[in-house]
Design goal:
Elements: E1 20-22, E2 25-27, E3 31-33, H1 48-58, E4 65-72, H2 89-104, E5 108-114, H3 122-127, E6 133-134, H4 143-151, E7 157-158, H5 161-180, E8 185-189, H6 195-200, H7 215-233, E9 238-242, H8 259-275, E10 282-286, E11 317-320, H9 327-334, E12 339-343, H10 345-349, H11 353-359, H12 385-399
Parallel strand pairs: 3-4, 3-12, 4-5, 5-8, 6-7, 8-9, 9-10, 10-11, 11-12
Antiparallel strand pairs: 1-2
Helix pairs in contact: 1-2, 5-7, 7-8
The structure holds P-hydroxybenzoic acid (PHB).
Family: Belongs to the NADH:flavin oxidoreductase/NADH oxidase family.
Cofactor: FMN
GO biological process, one term: apoptotic process
């Protein structure tokens, strides 16, 4: 497995290696594992043994924060059967040893709570007798998803207000389940064009009721989920992910002139709650270097910055988006108040990424073709630096 050829910096004496508390998690440094879909589950049940090994490897440096892959809050929220859920007893039991593997390394885990909405597969939902849902009836992500929905006789259904309340209740159940499974907290996925983002965004939210139209109305569902989770499990156990610049899932990103206003509003509402004693564990932002998680690095980067958050929000900020290729940006951004950096694709390929960033060692290259394999290949077989060097020496010997 070759190394990446990014410029490297030894981050040892930088702010990246200052300790910080996230909720009750006492982190020894500010490198976070980003949430990453890996599709090793079956029928929404994680492959315990394999995933415990994978997460345990990535938690190997004490005091690291891991955010799990997106985990469905309910069958209605789902549709990709090889992704995991946290809404049945079997799923909770399957997660327990995974979270334990992280805790055994003295690291911490937040479970990401996921609800697909219009990015789901209408046929898969129809097989289970479930509706294909979104923010607005008759408003589709694109022509392909419209065709898929009509072919499956499962046209998109904009949630009614009572259904929105049911989804909020399902977030609460899922959050409690995640804690029962041993997670230290949960992350509300309100980014990357999934259901909560579909309510925030004017491309997908064409509603005319109290959940549509104004920024305040579009933000309501996300903030109701926040409030319900804070009430149920406590503010310190709740984080949230937002992607102001994202286009994935046919979001407007910065094509909407009001996009900063929208996210400034949401973040301000979170700060107001914080000032009343309910500060979330963190706000997690995707940087404009990644406008679609499906793109390779460097593709569709846009100009801009999430720095506006610091004028509004005084709590922890996690920033994500190709920091491996931009170590100078990493150094600058992590020096901002209460800031942590999430690494994604390079955390997949580099189980000892924390040690390597500390020392300025090169990271492992990743193989995109194995991101979504069903098995151990490209999952638990990436080497540490020592193993990589040793393997290379063996290769050299063989060649000689
Ligand atoms: C994906 O599976 O491609 C995926 C999942 C969650 C995200 C982004 C991408 O937030």
């Amino acid at each position: 497995m070759p190394f990446r050829d990014d410029k490297t910096i030894a981050f040892k004496d930088t702010d990246l290696f200052k300790s910080i508390n996230v909720g009750s998690a006492e982190l020894k440094q500010r490198i976070v594992m980003a949430p990453l879909t890996r599709l090793r589950s079956t029928n929404y049940v994680p492959n315990t043994e394999l995933s415990a090994k994978y997460y345990g490897q990535r938690a190997q440096r004490e005091g690291t924060l891991i955010i799990t892959e997106g985990t469905f809050i309910s069958a209605e929220a789902a549709g990709y059967k090889p992704a995991p859920g946290i809404f049945t007893k079997e799923q909770i039991e399957a997660w327990k040893p995974i979270h334990k593997a992280i805790h055994d390394q003295k690291s911490f885990v937040f479970q990401q709570l996921w609800n697909l909405g219009w990015q789901s597969w209408p046929a898969a939902l129809a097989e289970d007798g479930l509706q294909y849902i979104g923010a607005t009836t008759d408003v589709y992500m694109d022509e392909d998803s419209k065709k898929a929905a009509l072919d499956a006789k499962n046209p998109i259904h904009g949630l009614t207000i009572p259904e929105i309340k049911e989804h909020v209740a399902n977030y609460v159940k899922a959050a409690k389940n995640a804690l029962e499974a041993g997670a230290d907290g949960v992350e509300i996925h309100s980014a990357n064009g999934y259901l909560l983002n579909q309510f925030l965004d004017p491309n997908s939210n064409k509603r005319t009721d109290e959940y549509g139209g104004s920024i305040e109305n579009r933000a309501k569902f996300t903030l109701e989920v926040v409030d319900a989770l804070v009430e149920a499990i406590g503010n310190e156990k709740v984080g949230i992910r937002l992607s102001p610049y994202g286009w994935f899932g046919n979001m407007t990103g910065k094509n909407d002139p009001e996009f900063i206003a929208l996210y400034a509003y949401v973040i301000a509402q979170l700060e107001k709650r914080a000032q009343q004693g309910k500060r979330l564990a963190y706000i997690h932002l995707v940087e404009p270097r990644v406008t679609s998680p499906a793109d390779a690095e460097g593709v569709n980067e846009v100009e801009g910055s999430n720095n506006f958050i610091y004028d509004i929000w005084k709590g922890n900020v996690i920033r994500a988006g190709n920091y491996a290729s931009y170590p100078d940006n990493a150094k600058t951004d992590v020096s901002k108040p209460n800031t942590l950096l999430a690494y994604g694709r390079t955390f997949i390929s580099t189980p000892d990424i924390v040690d390597r960033l500390e020392k300025g060692l090169p990271l492992n290259a990743y193989d995109r073709n194995t991101f979504y394999n069903p098995d151990a290949k490209g999952y638990t077989d990436y080497p540490t630096y020592e193993e990589a060097i040793k393997a290379e020496k063996v290769e050299d010997l063989k060649l000689n």
